[in-house]
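Form P-L/3: holo structure prediction, ligand zinc ion.
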Amino acid sequence: MPLSSRAQSALAPYCFLLSNFSGAAHDPGVPDPFYMNNDRVLIFDTTLRDGEQCPGASMNLREKLEIARQLARLKVDIIEAGFPVISDGDFEAVKIIASEIQGPVIAGLARCVPKDIEAAGRALLPAGDRARIHVFLATSKIHREHKLKKANEEIIRLAVEGVTQAKSMVCDVEFSPEDASRTEPEFLAEVVQAAIEAGATTVNIPDTVGYAMPGQYADLITYLRKHVRDIEKAVISVHCHDDLGMAVANSLAAVQSGARQVEGTFNGIGERAGNAALEEVVMAIKTRPDVYGGLFTGIATKEILKTSRLISRLSGLQVARSKAIIGENAFAHGSGIHQDGILKMRETYEIMDPRDVGWGGTDLPLTKHSGRHAMVARLEQLGLTLTEAEIVPIFTRFKELGDKKKFVYDDDLVALAGDAAAGETGAYALESLYVVCGGSTVPTATVKLRHNGETLEEASPGNGAVDAAMKAIDRIVKKTGHLAVYLVEAVTEGQDALGEVTLKVDFGDGRLITGKGASTDVIEASARAYVNAINRVLVMQQTAPGVDMSRV
Ligand code: KIV
Ligand code: ZN
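OUTPUT (holo model):
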């Protein structure tokens, strides 16, 4: 159903999202805001902004673009691509995503500060009518008095100025009163009303510190719907953090009170305990029509698992086995009674069909006899579209691996692709590794790295084989990294499993850089992961030399 004429006249008609907003018919006898005439819940993904604020999850441009492409396949409504003013790297990422990604609206975050809004507007230019500037300003007493040191009137003035400036650059403007759930409801209503009057088309009500409880948060949304004049001119959005484990429950409670946009991340990654896990929000709405009668999202749910795995691989943040929807155990049935029930009728112990979120249906695994064509086709099925130059080293390693093990599974391939991504121009690639250790010998590693067409070699002793390999690599690249996290995981099953090593390394500037590497040999996987972290820090130093810590 198209927008009601009331809404259309209230909003700029060329706004992409708003003019494409459609859903089920509404009873015309009931006076309700336009978004309540509409049963669609918009999904706003902030993996590339709030998700990336998670310590150690920073991603380079190539990785952000890969995630954005997958989010578009998943059909999220809005991608928050970054915080353009924060660094040259963030600016570039928003700009490139805005120019390359078709489909979703692309949002850029900005404080209510002219230079932030200006940067967001410039970065978003390539998105045309799909650009959204998301401005935020803290409104709670504790933030007003201790962080901003500003009186209520000044907060309202800054919010209005921020929205007005953003509105002069794009028609789609979102306003977030940061720490809304701890703001006095009367003052919150005043700020939200002023933002709408200034032209905000979405008003987001963040539970910034994850303090709210579902009933209370739902009541806050109801309160705003009652007390904010012209609230129907904007979409009410919610943005919940998970400090008390309530982010998804709070988001869903707010939807029942009339919110029609939910912000969060897939896998729930984000600042501190994370954001609302969008896969849970989406599947709750889909699985419980009796509770969320008539509501729906536009998400292509079969893409959920692929998205989750991609984000986990690129952010370096593992998903717990028991995590709802996307964890390894989410659809695994251990007990005999359950297995028996499932065999008799799947629904006895499954409330969702695993295939609906992308599980199952894996074809026969590839072997050393498989050709390049088959490998590329499988990579594409896994959501990895690669260039010719990227395919060559992956295929070489695919054949090497095929010689070592019977089957090359999907996870093997994804790990190989991640590894090979490090072989871009200017990057280092592990050519060979030779380690002597055991008994009373001092562990010693000899490493050869390929760099700009040259082979560089160094050897070093170390406190164990992995340490020796890292020190030899340090000597070649002239950097010193300190391991903060070291994790080994078998990504496939059996004795010939491919081990994947995830590292978090501090190269001296306080940032934790993630590296991943895979091999059937754990020491080699560690060296590959370390080289991967080095390549990533080199890219970051080129694109985002400094991070402005005053971002909030
Ligand atoms: O948690 C928060 O309040 C935010 C805002 C910038 C929306 O991330
Ligand atoms: Zn947040």
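COMMENT: The chain has a mean pLDDT of 85.
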